Amino acid sequence: MKREAIIEIQHKIGVVPDGFWGAKSIEACQRHCRRLMPIPNPWPAQSEAALIGFFGMHGNEDRLVNLFVGDLDVQYEGSKVKTMRVHNRIAAALRRVLEEVAIVSPETLREYCGAYNNRPMRGLNKPSLHAYGAAVDFRADTNANHQHWPVSADMPFKVIEAFSREGFLSAGVFWGRDSMHHQATT
Q1: Would you kindly state where each structural domain of the chain is located, as residue ranges?
Q2: Which of 40, 56, 120 minimizes the C-alpha distance to 89?
Q3: What is the residue-level pLDDT of the chain in tens, covering all 186 positions?
């Protein structure tokens, strides 16, 4: 992300707009995103017990739905996407996020990278949030796991705010990397 964009984010989150993304900016950005989240947050904690209690067992496709997105210009590798396969408990909230993203950053929707995928977390034996149908990825080419947000990754802050308003955690803000990833957990 360009220095000017970082300064714009810093203005918005209330820290010195110097273009340097350090501990104060990270903390202020996380605080800003948490303030946008609904109270109470509708999603479970990230523990396996909480996830299973809320979503059911990972890999169980009985609770997945096909969320219609054919009217939002969502694309996967240049092809139009009609539906996203997600957990039924996140479908309405995700639809609201996507409708907002269609307005504030429509180009993000044209770089959809997936939702449900019954797989473990990268490098771990624990199931990914994708295995519950509770996570979605966008813009993988410029927001990969090794790219730090917002210094080298470019997920638009307006997209992150849209996810925050529905209680989702955006990995770029809360882990500093993998900013393509947004999940329905607290």
Answers
A1: 3-183
A2: 56
A3: 999 999 999 999 999 999 999 999 999 999 999 999 999 999 999 999 999 999 999 999 999 999 999 999 999 999 999 999 999 999 999 999 999 999 999 999 999 999 999 997 877 789 999 999 999 999 999 999 999 999 999 999 999 999 999 999 999 999 999 999 999 999
